[in-house]
Design brief:
The chain is α+β, with helices and mostly antiparallel strands. The protein has one domain: SH3 type barrels (Roll). The protein is 39% helix and 34% strand. The chain contains three helices and six strands; from the N terminus they run ααββββαββ. A six-stranded antiparallel sheet has the order 4-3-2-1-5-6. Strand 2 and strand 3 form a beta hairpin. It is elongated and about 65 Å long. The N and C termini lie far apart (69 Å).
């Protein structure tokens, strides 16, 4: 039984009057996320190209490992892959360690990479 003066159910009025506003808000949010993802993808590509251009160069690494733990090493950028890059680090005269990092680690400042020859930060 409808309420006096309201011939249609309340959700009908909600759909007519408020749905365009809700749809616009949702659409704006989706577009904002797409733009943000495109910017992130472009930033990742810039970082990857910077790392690719310095293959074979000596670098200083400072990696945050959480809970006030950090890793500070010097090594050589060895190889570049679509999602990661590897750095060869000499531990002592006889042993070599290969560390891998993602490009997103550099973007989020979990890893700082500095080129030794010109002190340029990637």
């Amino acid at each position: 039984m409808p309420i006096v003066g309201i011939p249609y159910p309340i959700n009908f009025y909600f759909q007519i009057y408020f749905m365009p506003f809700v749809a616009k808000i949702i659409l704006d949010e989706i577009l904002f996320k797409k733009v943000r993802l495109m910017i992130d993808a472009q930033a990742l590509m810039r970082v990857r190209k910077a790392v690719e251009s310095n293959i074979g160069e000596r670098v200083k690494l400072k990696a945050n490992r959480g809970r006030k733990k950090s890793l500070v090493k010097e090594g050589v950028i060895q190889e570049v892959y679509p999602c990661i890059f590897t750095v060869r680090v000499n531990i002592d005269d006889r042993s070599v360690q290969t560390l891998s990092f993602t490009y997103f680690d550099i973007l989020t400042s979990n890893v700082e990479v500095v080129i030794c020859k010109n002190n340029e930060r990637i």
